[in-house]
Each structure stands twice: as C-alpha cells, then as structure tokens.
Amino acid sequence: MAEVRIIGGQWKRSKLPVADAVGLRPTPDRVRETLFNWLGQDLDGWRCLDAFAGSGALGFEAASRGAAEVTLIERDTKLVRSLRAVQERLKATETVRVEAVDALAWMARSAPDRFDLVFIDPPFDADLFVPALKAAVRVVVPSGVIYLEASRSFVDDPLLAELGLRLHRHGRAGAVHFHLIQRAEPG
Questions:
Q1: Domains, the chain, ordered by start
Q2: Fewer CB atoms near the end CB (10 Å): N or C, the chain?
Q3: Model pTM?
C-alpha cells in the first residue's frame, strides 16, 4: 500500500495509508506544502471540511496544524475504515470527525456558513467540480476559503464571480490545477 506523510504541525512525518481505489489521487506533498504556505502554517481554531477526503491528507494536515474541528467526508467504505484507523492512531477523535456519506448530500444538509476552510478534491473523472463548488459556497463562512483541486483551471471561469467567489491563488503541478478561492463578504 502506498502512503503520504503529513508535512507540518504536531503530526509532522506521520504516515497516512493510500488505498488502491479508483479515482483516488492524494494531494502531493509539494502541492500541500504550497497550499499551507498560502494559508499560513497555523490554522489554530479553524473549522475545516475535507469534502472528498480519500486518504485524508488535506484534513489531517489541517488538524495537525491546529484546526479546532475537521470533518472528513468520504463515501467509499474501505476509505472510511482507513480514515477512522488513522484518526484512532493519531488520537484525533476530539478534533477530527469522519462521516461515511456522499459529500454533496452532506453539504446540502449542513448548516450554512459553518466552515472557515473547505477542501474540494473530488475524483477527476466524476466531473463534480462545479456541483462541489456550489455546495461549498453554502457551507463556507463569508471571507472563508475554498481549496479546489481539479483537472482544469478555474482561473478565468465566470462561475467563480457568479457564486460570489474570488480567486486568491492558483498553481499547477502536472495535470493538477489547484486553487485557493475566497468567498466574498455579503454586500
């Protein structure tokens, strides 16, 4: 089984297993390092949602860096078992919650304006980028941020403005486009 490592915070260098699952591509270390440089190394007190958790690399990284609450959403039962095993091993049951459910359905039922940061990294072949962005806008607080990892760039996509979002940063690593997007303040 492959693995990725948490790159910063209290669990730095802890290994996360990466199951052999269709569509699972854990965010590479280099991309996570860039993302957390953009966000700041300390997420103390943040409430985070990892909407398509997979290996949990993004959510566990946020928890390792001080996030007060991290919700990992994953519908694949094999991946859910792996996430819960990591949660136990890291003794993260107070901070990290694992939900075995469809991410879009969960976000539709969630309280609005609940999270400071929402990670969206769906399977590339599922074409969930736009529905996931629309769902994330509802659950992220005003001025909160959405991290989107996609097979295409959203840099010049008018959808962002339509949803009340503003592109803050963008990068590319191979076929992966990664974006840090901010929700506008109301008014």
A1: 2-183 (3.40.50.150)
A2: C
A3: 0.93
Q: How confident is the model at residue 127 (pLDDT cuts 50, 70, 90)?
A: confident
How many other β-carbons are positioned within 10 Å of the β-carbon of residue 173? Answer: 13
Q: Encoding tokens for residue 46?
A: 């943040």
pLDDT digits (tens, 9 = 90+) for 58-86: 999 999 999 999 999 999 999 999 999 99
The one-letter amino acid at 45: G
Strands 96-100 and 115-120: unpaired
Tell me which DSSP letter residue 125 carries. Answer: G
| Among the listed residues 7, 51, 28, 50, the one whose alpha carbon sits nearest the alpha carbon of residue 176 | 28
Instruction: Give 56's contacts (C-beta < 8 A, 6+ positions apart).
Output: 16, 50, 72, 74, 82, 83, 86
The Cα diameter of the chain in Å comes to 49
